[in-house]
Amino acid sequence: MEVPTTQEIAGPSLSSTELLVLIRDRVVQCRQCPRLVEYREEVARIKRKEFLDWKYWGKPIPGFGDPNASLLIVGLAPAAHGGNRTGRVFTGDRSGDFLYKALHKTGLASQSTSESLDDGLVLKGAYVTAAVKCAPPDNKPTLDETSNCSTFLASEMDSLRNLKTILCLGQFAFKVVMRIIRKNYNLPRSSGTFGHGKVLKLGEGIPIIVCSYHPSPRNTQTGKLTEKMFLSVLRKTLRASKIAWNKP
């Protein structure tokens, strides 16, 4: 199955909400990458001991949040026993616990936890997604799998019509986002490099790119990324967006 672009999904007359619903449906139905399909379904069938009473989602994970968001947050991929279990990106794992707690503290999330699809969480001004929509073995998607999913991410970016800023969680997400930005705006390959806390203003009308280490346990438990560091990046992200776009 070839992944459609936003333009192929619908014309410009549809709202962001309507476009994102269409993209969500296509994400959830996708079976384009055999290795990922096999892995996500095997994990959902075997489960983890502490989640035996759960009915795992076991499908690709669409983005989640405010259709009118000015901020897009992009991670790597769903966790095998996190998003692949719950059906929501960054939900049911320690990375998500860290992320949504910070989003709540900065006023972007209605609550500090994200545990299930029906837990009442609402995002305001932010939309969260992943560069790859299926949980990959060893958290390492292949180049082909990443390329297949990048069309979905590009469509989400196109559909967020108020998009001003993109926060990339980790170098993997940054590289995928920058490939899309370079293609869309005909930018050179040298147009930006990853660095925690870095803010890239690439030109008039182009979303501002902000970089952060990924909130994985490997980073948060070793002190490479602390809550203070991440909150600082989030506030810098919101400040950069406001200065650049909310002109008097």
Describe this structure in words.
The protein has helices spanning 6-9, 16-29, 34-46, 83-86, 94-105, 143-159, 171-185, 217-220, 227-245, and strands spanning 64-65, 71-75, 126-130, 165-169, 199-200, 208-212. The protein has 248 residues and is of the alpha/beta class. It has one domain (6-245): Uracil-DNA Glycosylase, subunit E. Strands 1-3-2-4-6-5 form a six-stranded mixed sheet, sandwiched between helices. Strand 5 (199-200) and strand 6 (208-212) form a beta hairpin. Helix 2 (16-29) packs antiparallel against helix 6 (143-159). 46% of the residues are buried.
Order of helices and strands: HHHEEHHEHEHEEHH
Relative helix content: 40-55%
What strand line-up does the widest sheet have? 1-3-2-4-6-5
CATH topology label:
Uracil-DNA Glycosylase, subunit E
What structural class results from the helix and strand content? alpha/beta
Low-confidence stretches: none
Form type: globular
Q: What Rg do the Cα atoms give?
A: 17 Å
Q: CATH H level: which superfamily?
A: Uracil-DNA glycosylase-like domain
Major beta sheet summary: 6 strands, mixed
Query: β content, as a range?
Result: 5-15%
Text of the CATH class: Alpha Beta
Tally of contiguous helical segments: 9
Mean pLDDT score, rounded? 93
How many structurally independent domains? 1
Output the keywords.
248 residues; alpha/beta; six-stranded mixed β-sheet; 10% strand
Describe what is shown at a glance:
It is globular, with a radius of gyration of 17 Å. It is of the alpha/beta class and 248 residues long. The protein is 41% helix and 10% strand.
